Amino acid sequence: MEDKVWAVAAIILLIGGAVGGYYGGTLTATPSEESVSKSDYDALSSKYEALQEISLPDVIKIGVAYPLTGPIAPITLKIIKAAELAAKFVNDTGGIAGRSVRLIFEDTAAEPETCLEAVKKLVEVDGVEVIVGPATTPSMLAVAEYLNRRKVPIIAPSASAIKISEEGGPYLFRTVPSDDLQTAALADLVKSKGWKKLATFVLGQDYGIGLEQGLKENLEIIAPEVEIVKSVRYDPEKMDYRSELQLVKDAKPEAIFFATWVEEGYVIFRQALEIGLDEALTFGGEGMADVAFFDDPSTAEFMTKTNMMGTKPASPKDRYYYQQFYTAYKETFDEEPSLYGDYMFDATMIAIMSVAKAGVYDGEKIKKAIPAVAEHYIGATGQKAMNENGDPLLAKYDVWEIVEGDEGPEYSFIGEWEKASGISWK
Amino acid sequence: MNWAQLLLNSAITGSLYFLLTLGLTMTYDLLNFANVSHAELITFGAYIGYVVSDTLNLGFIWGVTASFFSSGLLGIISYMLVFRPLARRGADFIHLCIASVGYSLTLRFLMQQAWGQDIVLFESRFKAFTLGPIRLSWLGVSIMAMAIALFVSLHLILTRTKLGKAMRATSNNIVLAKASGINTEQVLLVVWFLGSALAGIGGVLKGCDTMVIPVLGWNLLIMVFATAILGGIGSFYGAFAAAYSIGLAENLSVATLGHLGLSTDYKGIVAFGILTAMLILKPTGLSGIKVFRRTLLRSDRN
Predict the structure, then answer these.
(1) What is the pTM of this model?
(2) I want to staple A164 with a disulfide (CB 3.0 to 4.6 A). Which of A168, A227, A237, A378 is the partner?
(3) Residue A386: beta bridge partners?
(4) Contact B265 A275 (CB under 8 A)
(5) What whole-number distance in Å separates Cα of residue A11 and Cα of residue A312?
């Protein structure tokens, strides 16, 4: 009997202690607002600020791994100016909590091996915890494994191949939409034009192959009647494409899809004109929407003669944020921003803002902050909310064609494409 | 498949390879080392051609002429400043090769400083015309004509002149040639000049056909070496046959890969497959094959 009394008393004490402890603990952990005096609040604030000062370095380093030399350097050297502009924007307005932003440039030479070396140097030697770049898909894929292992995020402004979403991993982000969407837009363009016999002539690397395959897959779904009569994947270093172009000519396509860089484009289009491949119509992706093509009269003549059309990720040019970027770029560098300049600007801004949001200069924490920052970021290229692969969720494409303007050939924007509504012609 | 067009494209490619290879194979034979800086003589020729033709606006013919002389002169300077002092100090194959790599990089970066990294495009435009089943530009015609003219001229120099005899004698045995009273030093200077000048012409033609970049010659170097080895080091006639064989192999492989839907990146497999087979079956290259050997012997007898 005595034992039972002690047992009941012990249970009552146990329950009482647990309940008391719970309420006591809760009260200590979350004091109501009224219970915190002003002096407590000030003390907490200064403590918080002190913590912030300790966690962010005086200079916030943002790595920029992009081609500074090599065949595409004439274009990429213009693109990186947009990164400089983003850093200038932030530094001119007081930096991040008083810390200045410093860009550290490393040359990738548009080669995967050099890019990996550049990224390793940024991380291991310069201690960079977030990187903007690189320019091309092979370079992006080359650094993926290292950056995922080393837990340093990278934001690409121009590498658009589908393969990056599939194989990139959690530390790879992009401000440029995946070609997955662009190939859907291109397939819509083919369908709306009623072309039935197509040929493709693409760069024999992930970028070109991704576009070619994506276009074919989308056409199989929306326009199975379209026949691909010839597909050529060219070697960018060969610099002589007569035989490749002849294969396309022999297949007698109605329209030819081109995906080239500007450098080889000069040679390809000169030789295409020479072999008389200007009877078919031509079209292409964003890579073909570059005014640099017009620097060569033969290239310009071929593109105009074949009435080249295509798609290009749209920048909301009538919006404040694009205007702000455009005006500042022109004032600072006294030239027009190049293709992808706006995407580079947004990539750099998101990188900087993600460091600010993370509150600490640590790759893992910055990586977690990037999607949150992107979710609410509206930049020169519009809203940048990202999907689970780190790709922009929303993308709009301009539909363009090359026309003969008063001062020579020019890109004329003739429509817009959105996933939900397809092409709406202007 | 338009076979006539394919053969014509192969002839253009082969003509360029012949012009680019000749200097390399000649200097390789005389000094017994692979001159990597030959690539830069190609690029230098292209830049000089551009400056004279477009910047000074003197026209393409003067551009080609200027490339010929300036690349030739650069070849002589390279020999006198870098390779001759090394060879006199007893440098062997490896030393000379490594020196040529270093010298090559120096020249490339100097050109990069002078002309920048931007793409240079010739403004000279050559009209294209249709001839039966083929379509051809006047530049293609110029490239082939230039290669044939130079082949004939060099053949005549080698077989009909004292200089040609001296060149062949120096190539066969430099000590014996010297003992026979041949001014071998003069012969070496002529060979360096001619080889480099031809590389310059090849460079300006290739540059005009495509574009000029600091790595123009460097990107061509592997094919140039392949042609020299396939032809047999030092063989003028072998180089001629090898250049057109590689040109044909390259264009045929492009057509085959294109039909299979594969990237033309793999074209090297065919060209280098032929090269590997040749090295296994006939390490002396095409010049080791009877018909070429006979030609050479006949030349020697003259």
Answers:
(1) 0.77
(2) A168
(3) A392
(4) no
(5) 73
What stretch of H or E contains A323? helix A320-333
Here the ipTM equals: 0.81
Q: Is residue A23 pLDDT above 80, yes or no?
A: no
Instruction: Report the distance separating Cα A120 and Cα A114, nearest Å.
Output: 10
At A21, the amino acid letter reads G
Is there a contact between B201 and B190 (Cβ–Cβ < 8 Å)?
Answer: no
A50 pLDDT higher than 50: no
CA dist A127 and A108 (Å) reads 18
Q: Cβ of A230 under 8 Å from any chain B Cβ? A: yes
With beta carbons under 8 A apart, name residues in chain A contacting B267. Answer: 235, 238
| CA proximity to A197, closest of A248, A245, A247, A255 | A255
The pLDDT of residue B299 is above 70: no
Q: Which amino acid is at A211?
A: L
* Nearest CA-CA partner of A238 in B294, B241, B266: B266
Report residue B37's pLDDT band, with 50, 70 and 90 as the boundaries. Answer: very high
Cα–Cα distance between A210 and B60 in angstroms, integer? Answer: 41
Task: Compute the average pLDDT of residues A141-159.
Answer: 96
Chain A residues in contact with B130 by the CB 8 A cut-off are 276
B117 band by pLDDT with thresholds 50, 70 and 90: confident
Q: Do A375 and A190 form a contact (C-beta atoms < 8 A)? A: no
Q: Does B287 touch chain A (CB under 8 A)?
A: no
- Contact of A307 with A402, CB cutoff 8 Å: yes
d(CA B154, CA B163): 11
Single-letter residue type at B19: L
* Contact yes or no for A143/A154 (Cβ under 8 A): yes
Phi, psi angles (nearest 5°) of residue A129: -110, 0
- Average of pLDDT values for B50-70? 94
